[in-house]
Amino acid sequence: MNFVRSHVLVCGGTGCTASKSPEIIETFHSELKSHGLDKEVSVVQTGCFGLCALGPIVVVYPEGSYYTQVKVEDVNTIVEEHLLKGRIVDKLLYKETDDKGVERSLNNTEFYLRQHRIALRNCGVINPEMIDEAIAFDAYQALGVCLTEKTPEEVIEIISASGLRGRGGAGFPTGMKWKFAAASPGPVKYVCCNADEGDPGAFMDRSVLEGDPHAVLEAMAIAGYCIGANQGYIYIRAEYPLAVRRLRIAIEQAKEYGLLGKNIMGSGFDFDLEIRLGAGAFVCGEETALLTSLEGHRGEPRPRPPFPAVKGLFGKPTVLNNVETFANIPWIINHGADAFSCMGTEKSKGTKVFALGGKIKNTGLVEIPMGTTLREVVEEIGGGCPNGKKFKAAQTGGPSGGCIPASLIDTPLDYESMAAIGSIVGSGGLIIMDEDNCIVDIAKFFLEFTMDESCGKCSPCRIGTKRMYEILEKITQGRATLEDLDTLEELGNHIKENSLCALGQTAPNPVLSTLRYFRDEYEAHVVDKKCPAGVCKDLVEYKIITDKCTGCTACARICPVDAISGKVREPHVIDPSVCIKCGSCLAACKFGAIIVE
Amino acid sequence: MKTLEDLKKIREEMQSQINLRTDESDVTRIVVGMATCGIAAGARPVLEALVNEVGSRKLQNVVVTQTGCIGVCRLEPIVEVYEKGQEKVTYVQMDPDKARKLVSEHLVNGRVVQAWTIGAAE
Fold first, then answer.
1. Does a structural domain hold residue B63?
2. How many angstroms separate the Cα of A471 from the Cα of each of A449, A495, A527?
3. What is the DSSP code string of A484-499?
4. How many separate helices (H) and strands (E) can be counted in chain A?
5. B56 lies in which domain range?
6. What is the pLDDT of residues A96-108, one digit of tens each?
């Protein structure tokens, strides 16, 4: 093998792929070739680095130079300056958001410093399409150790001792789940992986599968060994084509190496894996609905018990874990239960990956120890809200979760603390809202999502979410009464208690938690008929401040319904009876003369 | 079929690939000054010679990298060797032949070639 002096890592996650990282890779190849550097510098396509806001990301080793927002045109500069002449290209380097100066080491930036990457350990480090690179970073080592040196009971004991809990949202102890499935009698059992990531704003499972698919395959084989299963299924949504492709490549390579299939590592243990594509129904992320869908039926949940560990896929004992849960397993086996359990809080061990989105500077993926406070995530890792806006609230756990107001920003992110304030950790979506977001509108958005995604099997969820949505619509249109708020709360609690599966049981959460913390904002809509954030169209009016208006006519020209009139160089006026509140004039005005009330 | 032994072998073969991407400090770094002054004085063939020599000897835990102007432009091409726990050694007025010998003497045999160091040149 040639000695390679430098590695150029280019992010091949979905975000960066969308902003032309494949073209960047191609250009690197051709530029390196034309400079005669193609033998000593290698270009590697990796998984997600996490800092998606600043993609496409290119990292050059051994210097560890972290280039962000790289364009195809920049490749020539990087090759000529950095790789040929050894001069790091300062203008493309990732700079600290607090302007402390230019940081060159990736791990010393605010964004990465507080992170502990376990599930994401190989994302942005290896080429996910080369099994040798994964093996170089310890892939399949844990499987080998389990198969040749440990009994299934010993492995389950390690997982139990680590304190790992389900990362899909419910937080059920993984070791206990495996123990139940192992104890269930029967010659045929299954291991399934839930990769049906459906929460709007959550993309950690996709990134793990795109960046380090072997970690999941290895963990599934370990689970199979522990419970006595020889067949596994990965249920993944068809909307993740890149993840599906990399999974297929990974499975093929693992089979070629005999790390999946018959008689793995000469231990006599057989384990095979297949991929099943989901059609993107949110309810199929719920375990019983997922298994029903896997069997080929319509994806609808069924009552529990019996739990899947006793009677799961095709009526056989089944372990079903989330992608991130699986990704932690090999690390725990390799490093020991203590190394994992020493991170986190008393009852929530280890780390959790959060997908930061919404009104935040550093949109992306962060993996932090459980119990890190929301303040650290938002202000330090996330870099705060853009444009100096004030942080208002964070929605955790997507449409199943709750809203954390700014007053509770010091709440630790762990299962217990989240539950105590009426939210959940959930799958790890973390949507940040600033002062420009209307809380009622956000709650309505999530409820509209769950209402659409309700499978319709049980009436509390099917009819209840519809009725709740109608009340929210009334509120945002200024037609509601205070009585409606009480009905909304009562209805929400009723749906929570009586729905068949987690979708219905959690659907009212966004409404109930915002009613709890932002009741004044609801009341402003109901009583004053005003939307304090200026979002709900029926409750706002666009006005022109006469003193500020220069009569430039920019607003009048852009208005699609001709609601703005006035002579050139004289203040204009908006006719509220014609205005459709589209906001075009607000964006067009250069003098700040248009306001929303 | 792969065994744990096979996995270990693959890991070892991949070492030279991946140690570039870790921040481990027991890696020896050979740094070539590649600013305009260095390049004009012939740093590029020196770098190539180093890369080839390290590669053909299959040395582990060695990284060949570049830097900008080291400051003593009149003594370019300059090559610096950073070993863990050792003083940095600065070699001056290098050429491809010297570079290859540097690898065998300094990195393989562990003997600093005093005659080419900046101390001897001054």
1. yes
2. 15, 15, 15
3. HHHHHHHHHHHHHHH-
4. 24, 17
5. 24-121
6. 654 545 544 566 6
Contact A555, A572 (CB under 8 A): yes
From chain A, pick out residues whose CB is under 8 angstroms from the CB of B21. 7, 9, 61-62, 125
CA within 13 Å, CB half, B68: 6
User: In chain B, how many domains are there?
Assistant: 1
Query: Which residues from A are below 8 Å from B36, CB to CB?
Result: 85
**C-alpha separations of A438 from A9, A481, A541, B42 in Å:** 40, 19, 15, 64
Q: What is the pLDDT of residues A258-268, one digit of tens each?
A: 999 999 999 99
Q: What is the mean pLDDT of residues B94-113?
A: 92
Number of neighbours of residue B21 by Cβ within 10 angstroms: 21
Q: Over 70: is that where the pLDDT of A4 sits? A: yes
pLDDT above 60 (res B62): yes
CATH number for the domain that contains residue B56:
3.40.30.10
Interface of B with A (CB under 8 A): 1-4, 7, 10-11, 13-18, 20-21, 23, 27, 29, 32-36, 39, 47-48, 51-52, 54-56, 63-68
CB A378 within 8 A of CB A391: yes
Ordered structural domains, chain A, with CATH: 6-113 (3.40.30.10), 131-340 (3.40.50.11540), 351-434 (3.10.20.600), 439-526 (1.20.1440.230), 541-596 (3.30.70.20)
pLDDT in tens, A497-546: 999 999 999 999 999 999 999 999 999 999 999 999 989 988 988 999 99
> What are the structure tokens assigned to A567, written together?
């002579």
Note whether residue B71 is domain-resident: yes
